[in-house]
Write a structure and sequence with these properties.
Layout: E1 5-10, E2 14-20, H1 23-29, E3 36-38, H2 41-50, E4 55-59, H3 61-71, E5 76-79, H4 86-97, E6 101-102, E7 114-120, E8 126-131, H5 145-150, E9 151-157, H6 164-179, E10 183-187, H7 191-206, E11 212-216, H8 217-223, H9 229-237, E12 243-247, E13 253-257, E14 260-264, H10 278-291, H11 296-310, H12 322-328
Parallel strand pairs: 1-5, 1-9, 2-7, 3-8, 5-6, 9-10, 10-11, 11-12
Antiparallel strand pairs: 2-4, 7-8, 12-13, 13-14
Helix pairs in contact: 3-10, 7-8, 8-9, 10-11
């Protein structure tokens, strides 16, 4: 039976609240530049009050990937939990308007829809403070096994490993995908996320739960507990049966398959405005390329095109025609 989806993404359903700021604000508020920190509702209200003028859009790492892949022509679905509130309805509308299938039932009570406060400094670096809210209610009951089995690729964002019940949701989706002969991918998401769950992530890699791993070079070094990039890459090459995709900002990406490593350059950009979503959109391009049968190097080139678009404006949702850009690059 042909797959009904190319890609099914499991992730935190989050509404992004984005504002420009400076280094002094980060120091004053005690946040770690370039990282994602989990915060409670009181801290969320405080940051919203002091962060200055903000733009509010639907976001979440996995949801950004789902949107990017859909805009590149992939048949895409998303599993994530929102509350039945104003922000939850905004999230659902924004997702489905791009063609992503989103059928997860909203929570009728409990914490509000999740929010991520994204602080963008003049160098384009983003610092994230996330109130998970309703995200933490995602459970295995929200995963439809038939849908997961129908997807050629199931993709999990590492941030989703924070809510305990979501781990079983991912395992359920992964079992269904593998039972149907399909592939499972994980993005490590953040070096601090890796620090929290290193042993569990390595366990997923080594017990056969994963076929594809996305990481930036900092996350990969954290995974293998080394300050040396070459040492981390050598360890990745030793992982049996794993396709590894390692992004390195302006230095492009590496595709690691078995003992082979292929380098793909970054796509050119006029100006880096906001790096929010760069990894998300790279994964979107790569997975959309896999769904179209492109070889790994061209998948990485497609990812680079999508990432280049996203870092040239504020926000993690594309503003230009991704499919058009990919066509111009000879990739669609």
């Amino acid at each position: 039976m042909p797959a009904s989806l190319d890609l099914l993404v499991l992730g935190n359903a989050i509404v992004d609240v984005m504002a420009r700021t400076d280094e002094a604000f980060l120091v004053r508020e005690g946040v770690h530049k370039g990282a994602m920190q989990l915060i409670d509702e009181a801290r969320a209200e405080h940051l919203f009050g002091v962060m200055g003028p903000a733009t509010i859009v639907s976001g979440g790492s996995g949801a950004n990937t789902a949107v990017g892949a859909a805009l590149l022509g992939a048949r895409t679905g998303f599993v994530g939990k929102v509350r039945d509130d104003e922000l939850g309805r905004l999230f659902a509308h924004d997702l489905t308007a791009t063609g992503v299938r989103f059928a997860t039932a909203p929570a009728g009570e409990g914490p509000a829809t999740a929010r991520c406060f994204i602080l963008v400094t003049p160098d384009g670096e983003r610092t994230m403070n996330t109130y998970l809210g309703a995200c933490q209610g995602l459970s295995a009951d929200d995963v439809d096994e038939a849908t997961a089995a129908s997807a050629r690729f199931v993709y999990l964002e590492g941030y989703l490993w924070d809510p305990p019940a979501a781990k079983e949701a991912f395992r359920k989706a992964a079992r269904a995908a593998h039972g149907a002969g399909n592939k499972v991918a994980l993005t490590l998401s953040d070096a601090f996320c890796v620090d929290r769950y290193r042993d569990e992530f390595l366990g997923l890699i080594r017990d056969g739960s994963l076929d594809i791993l996305f990481a930036n070079i900092h996350e990969l070094k954290s995974l293998y507990q080394t300050a040396n990039a070459e040492t981390a890459l050598a360890a990745l090459r030793e992982e049996t049966g794993l396709l590894g995709i390692v992004t390195r900002s302006e230095d492009g990406a590496l595709v690691v398959a078995g003992g082979d490593t292929r380098a793909v350059p970054a796509a050119p950009v006029r100006e880096v405005v906001d790096t929010t979503g760069a990894g998300d959109l790279f994964a979107a391009g790569f997975l959309a390329g896999l769904a179209r049968g492109l070889d790994h190097a061209d998948c990485a080139r497609l990812g680079a095109v999508a990432a280049a678009e996203i870092i040239q404006h504020i926000g993690a949702r594309p503003q230009a025609d991704l499919a058009g850009l990919a066509a111009q690059a000879g990739l669609l």
